[in-house]
Amino acid sequence: MVRLNVDLIAKSSIHIKNRRDEPLGQYLKKLTHLNFSNKNIENIDDLSLCRKLTVLYLYDNQITQICNLSFASNLTHLYLQNNNITHIENLSSLQRLSKLYLGGNCITVVEGLEGLEELQELHIESQRLPLGEKLLFDPRTLHSLSKSLSVFNVRNNGIDDIKELVILRNITQFFGEDNKIQNLKELELIFSQWSLLWRMDLSRNPVCNKPKYRDTIIMTCKTLEVLDGKDINETSRQFLMNWKASKEAKKRIKDERLRSAPGAFSNPVEFLIGKPRVPRKHLEFVLDKAHNLPSSVGDQGVRQPLPGRLDRRQIHGNELRHLSLKKPQFALAGQDVSEPPSLLTQVSL
Q: Which of 112, 225, 259, 328 has the highest CB neighbour count under 10 A?
């Protein structure tokens, strides 16, 4: 078992060369960068003498647990990708940590980062997850990172839902390729809140096959400059914005017309065919037509009035002045009611 400790540092050829004749303790106190990547390290031992350490490279090892780093209060960059780490833990004392690389481990939940108020980049891509599982996010950690995190890399983690990430309002770069994201409406909601986002990659997600996917994202993210590895042309963006504004304006005008039109009519029939206004002379014309329409012929060949026909002579002069046409629904669609009807099917008084 290879352990990272003071003795391992002392035996390292590069540090022997850099230290020369300087005492080991004094040398370790001044050490700011430590690179022990790809050394088959399984455990991190006591490094408390390296108090000025700012950058630690431990990627491509066999580390199973993050531990013994509480001394490193000045650490800003920590590289732990491609190890066997299962939990994010023991990092609360790293108050100056700004970049954390954890890709290619066995982490199932993004957690344990509360209190890291200066963390700007979190890379946790391609975790070796159990079959059928996806990377999860602890709400407490997301809330803690909401004001500081600007670069978030979660590619290739089986993720199908990122609505929890809307709280990360300062995201400028988001990498979510090779996941299972498919809800375009959800993305619109999230990205409309990420007002600083300028670079995003969702390549090889199901949502990329949705109609108007790229156009929708470009119109939603006003500050986006690069989408799925392709630059966004400002001319294209302006064209899409103008098209969207025109479409919304037309819809608004149409809605206003629909809202205002029914209020001008007293009933649905009037809304469809309009309010009829029949002058008295036209009413008289209708009555004349009713009286003169073809009638049935009796046995003697004498024209007989059709049943139900109205005889104008039965109407007194005073009553005629008060007649009105009460059933406008019999008017033919598109026919001007101010003109005499071409066909009379029924007359009602």
A: 112
Q: Longest C-alpha distance within the chain, in Å?
A: 144
* Cβ pair 72, 52 in contact under 8 A: no
Structure tokens belonging to residue 107: 């982490």
C-alpha span between 187 and 100 (Å, rounded): 26
DSSP string for residues in 53-119? --EEE--SS------S-TT-TT--EEE--SS------S-TT-TT--EEE-TTS---EE---TT-TT-
pLDDT tens digits, 67-98: 999 999 999 999 999 999 999 999 999 999 99
DSSP secondary structure letters along 260-296: HSGGG-SSHHHHHH------HHHHHHHHHHHHHS--E
Report how far residue 84's alpha carbon sits from residue 73's, in angstroms, rounded to the nearest whole number. 24
Helix (H, G, I), strand (E, B) or coil at 3: strand
Note the pTM of the prediction, 2 decimals.
0.70
- Rounded Cα distance between 331 and 337, Å, is 7
317: region left, alpha or beta (phi > 0 left; psi from -120 to 50 alpha): alpha
| Cβ atoms of residues 214 and 227 within 8 Å | yes
How many other C-beta atoms can be found within 10 angstroms of the C-beta atom of residue 310? 15
Which residues, including other chains, have CB under 8 Å from residue 308's CB and lie 6 or more apart? none
The pLDDT confidence band at residue 340, using thresholds 50, 70 and 90, is: very low
